[in-house]
């Protein structure tokens, strides 16, 4: 079995705490796919407090015969991005990516290449930023449910290691538990996720900053409950009294609405709360 890439080792618990919570914003996503496989995605978000609007138009085409995928995007920051991927062409499990971006109204530029390789019990990635220049590499290995991963970033100009992260975990049929050591083992996170039943998910995570011991341990608890095939609710609470609630409803096939609120239970009478909504269309 192929393990997740390093960024996705904690994906189940991260999704439980982050997805479907559009706090402080109004979001809209429209995605359509043509008969020949070209997909168009428009994302937009307005900050409720400031009124600022950001949006992005993305076009994606997959040439399945040759294993090629082309992606282009343009956002309101006037940043144009292009990416080409080729998978399983030279070797099974090998994917090559080349991406670049350019600011039309600024000098912002980026040029990156990435190599992904996956097989049973192994997922490795190398990402080279040609303009920084820097190299980031990560690897995940697995065996009988046990997971181990590491991530390293190296700055070619300074000749210094700029990031070292590591993760240990175990993934069972319906649960995962992970321990991460980030920032050169100065920031630790312990996370747990379980699908309790077909309609109930639960998770918890705790974070401790070794460089800031007086801050103590920050902790969160979260859950998701499926009401029926078209609706579910989510809730989360942390150790400083912030309560997050969300409700997601499929209004019709391809149309989904999410409503969410983040409430400071220690200041219920104050204007310290955030509301938000997200509407997604797909055809």
Brief overview:
By secondary structure, this protein is mostly beta strands.
CATH structural fold name:
Porin
Shape-level CATH architecture: Beta Barrel
What is the beta-strand fraction? Answer: over 45%
Report the mean per-residue pLDDT as an integer. 95
Radius of gyration: 21 Å
Distance between the termini: 33 Å
Q: How many structural domains in the coordinates? A: 1
Low-confidence stretches: none
What is the highest CATH level, the class? Mainly Beta
Shape: globular
Q: Profile the largest sheet.
A: 19 strands, mixed, barrel
| Number of separate strands | 19
Portion in helices: under 10%
- The CATH superfamily is known as Porin
**Contiguous helical run count:** 1
Q: What structural class do you assign from the helix and strand content?
A: mainly beta
Order of helices and strands: HEEEEEEEEEEEEEEEEEEE
Can you give a write-up of this model?
- With 283 residues, this protein is mainly beta.
- It has a single domain, classed as Porin.
- It contains one helix and 19 strands.
- It has a 19-stranded mixed beta barrel.
- A hairpin with a 3-residue loop joins strand 4 (68-75) and strand 5 (79-87).
- It is globular and about 55 Å long.
- Belongs to the eukaryotic mitochondrial porin family.
- It holds the Pfam family Porin_3.
- Keywords: Ion transport, Membrane, Mitochondrion, Mitochondrion outer membrane, Porin, Transmembrane, Transmembrane beta strand, Transport.
- It comes from Coemansia brasiliensis.
